[in-house]
Structure prediction request, 364 residues.
Amino acid sequence: MKAVAIMFPSREVRVLDVPEPRLHSPTQVKVRTLEVGVCGTDQDILKGHHGTAPKGEDHLVLGHECLGEVMEVGAHVQGLKPGDLVVPRVRRPCPHTHCPACRHGHPDFCVTGDYTERGIKGAHGFCSEHFVEDAAYLHKADDSLRGVAVLTEPLTIAEKGLRELSHIQSRLPWKVSPGKALVLGAGPVAQLGVMALMRAGFDVTVYSRSPKPNEKAAASEAVGAPYISSKEVTVEALRKQLGGVDVIYEATGASKVAFDSLQVLEENGVLIFTGVPGREEPLELQGDQVLGQLVLGNRVMFGTVNAADSDFREALEDLARFRAKWPGKVEALITQRHPPSEFAKVVEAKGGIKHVISFQEHAR
Ligand SMILES: [Zn+2]
Ligand SMILES: [Zn+2]
Prediction:
């Protein structure tokens, strides 16, 4: 069986011939990989910022955003049968008895850092013809989502963020109506965040680097979220134009624009960080001003990573809702499909919105 892997320590990406995976327990499921999404995390793995092989091995099979089709189920598996579409979760709990998060089924909040992540940290990913996974980590996707369900994992970032947002805003002693939201960035996580925020009732504006016209701006405006370029409109001017927003959803990993955007956040507003910073550029920050904005306006900033069981279920339901609300627009976020052998090239690809590795079109 073919698998796309990164070799250690060379960090070279290769297509390997690996043994066919088999069921080892009655709760496992064998899955045929259909599609694997490529994202900034893969880029970070190739650059050496992330990525570790399973213990004792010299390579890591890549791929953490996946859609597959069930081939075979163990004797104790319920609710899944051959032919069903499935999306796997990424993170697996750490082994420590003292980790409250993992022991409560929430490895996304793991406190020890000893979790594993398929395709990222200590466990092989899904970029292989087939893989085996415990049924507990698989989510059934409706057949109608065949063309978009590979976007489930990046959408779970927004689902978890919105879930945390609603917990935080329950601090306010009145029913908070959605109001205005600003999305920083226009990549796939941002675009899916736009849809999730709009679905939740927010009036959404996108603020990103490239001036219009460009395909990311077109994608957000196609679902009704105006796009403003940070090269053309300063944060101060944005504040005047929008008059302040209730939620900022950051999906760039660029710390300067993230902290600057606090100027646009209303009293009691919430800034959600989802981008992982990569450039390590020094940041000049008016610390007292930031502290003042937080304290004197009851503003909250929080970071969020990975997602839980319920976020995957919610994301799959939302993909169906998005398709009904904006026909063709979710599909349009996947701008290119490539064969598995091009993984390394795809990671470096410029342009487009979401790039996906397709096993169906190319490998069979
Ligand atoms: Zn990803
Ligand atoms: Zn843990």
Summary: The radius of gyration is 21 Å. The chain has eleven helices and 19 strands. Residues 155-303 form a domain with the Rossmann fold fold (CATH 3.40.50.720). The mean pLDDT is 96.
